[in-house]
Amino acid sequence: MNVRLVSSDSRDPERLNHLVEIGAQISGKLPLTRSDRLFFFSLSTQQLSKDLGGFAAPIDARVYHVLTRFTPFLRGTKQLDFLYAGNTFSNSREGAEAADRTERHQTR
Question: Hey, which end of the chain has fewer CB within 10 Å, N or C?
Answer without folding.
Answer: C
